[in-house]
C-alpha cells in the first residue's frame, strides 16, 4: 500500500500539509466532508498542488513532519520545482 504526503492550497491562499493512504478520498474529505481537517473546513475550497508517494507510513510521516517545519517560501519552491 502506498502512502502520500500532500500539500493543499486553501481558498485563503494558505498551505496545508497532510499524509494519507488514499489521496483522492482525502482531498474530497477536505472539500466536502465533516471528516476533513478543521483547518481546511474553514478555508474551503482546497486544491491539491503537490504530492509525493512513499512505500511506508513511517517514511511518509517523516517527510510530512519535515515539510511542515519549512517556511512558506521553501514549500512554494518545492511545489514550483
Rg from C-alpha positions?
12 Å
CATH class: Alpha Beta
Strand residues, percent: 25-35%
Q: How many beta-strand runs?
A: 3
In total, the number of domains comes to 1
**Helical/strand content category:** alpha+beta
Strand order of the largest sheet: 2-1-3
The CATH architecture would be 3-Layer(aba) Sandwich
Largest sheet: 3 strands, antiparallel
Order of helices and strands: EEHHEHH
Mean pLDDT metric = 96
Which homologous superfamily in CATH is the superfamily? GIY-YIG endonuclease
General shape: globular
Protein model, in words:
By secondary structure, the protein is an alpha+beta fold. The model has no long low-confidence stretch (mean pLDDT 96). The chain has one domain (3-80): GIY-YIG endonuclease. Strands 2-1-3 form a 3-stranded antiparallel sheet, with helices on both faces. The protein is globular, with a radius of gyration of 12 Å. The termini are far apart. The chain has 4 helices and 3 strands. 43% of the residues lie in helices and 26% in strands.
Question: What does the secondary structure layout of this molecule look like, with pairings?
Answer:
Layout: E1 3-9, E2 15-20, H1 23-32, H2 38-41, E3 47-54, H3 57-68, H4 72-80
Antiparallel strand pairs: 1-2, 1-3
Short description:
The chain is 43% helix and 26% strand. With 81 residues, the protein is α+β, with helices and mostly antiparallel strands.
Which structural traits does this protein have?
three-stranded antiparallel sheet, GIY-YIG endonuclease, 3 strands, 81 residues
